[in-house]
Design brief:
The complex is a heterodimer of chains A (about 120) and B (about 110).
Chain A lengths: L3 E4 L2 E4 L4 E8 L5 E7 L6 E7 L2 E5 L6 E7 L2 E7 L7 E8 L10 E2 L3 E5 L1
Parallel strand pairs in A: 2-11
Antiparallel strand pairs in A: 1-3, 3-8, 4-5, 4-9, 5-6, 7-8, 9-10, 9-11
Chain B lengths: L2 E3 L3 E5 L4 E8 L5 E7 L6 E6 L3 E5 L2 E6 L4 E6 L8 E9 L2 E4 L3 E6 L1
Parallel strand pairs in B: 2-11
Antiparallel strand pairs in B: 1-3, 3-8, 4-5, 4-9, 6-7, 7-8, 9-10, 9-11
Classes of the chains: A mainly beta (about 120), B mainly beta (about 110).
Chain lengths: ~120, ~110
Amino acid sequence: ETGVTQTPRHLVMGMTNKKSLKCEQHLGHNAMYWYKQSAKKPLELMFVYNFKEQTENNSVPSRFSPECPNSSHLFLHLHTLQPEDSALYLCASSQDEPSAMTEQFFGPGTRLTVL
Amino acid sequence: GQNIDQPTEMTATEGAIVQINCTYQTSGFNGLFWYQQHAGEAPTFLSYNVLDGLEEKGRFSSFLSRSKGYSYLLLKELQMKDSASYLCAVINNNDMRFGAGTRLTVKP
């Protein structure tokens, strides 16, 4: 247990569905992240939030919509996804934003399959 | 462009020492992290370097040369449980770019 939880752990959805991924951290951290991990590809940083404000968006398609209502919770809203979006989606948190070089703690991930 | 390169796979023997290299070419640099990821699990933090030189943490050490765009992770006294993927990641302001990871197999 890293102190970062994610739900659901597995999700299968059709291309027209709308679903949300949830992440919660119990570490008192200020920064939270969404990553995408596909087979045979590097881990990709999608979004960074620091004190609830988005500080990084790595050219992620608009069908992925993040939401950070407070420093402990992070959501990823999914809409009209494509089969190539099937991947493991990892949430992470750290005490401060990446430039502060504080280690990140990862959640177990949500395995997403888009049919 | 941004490139972070690591060998794809390595094999080593239990009890031995292995060095996993990472080279990078990025537009900026704040520091470099090393993470371990066992199959089917999330990455866990191992080490980080901001300045040139060696950082030692028990059986794991990490080295950085900023002028050469080069880092390595050194694992000593290898154990079977060290079989995993090892990811290097470069921090550039608030962006974090990962290499594709090196899959290490430790054999008896």
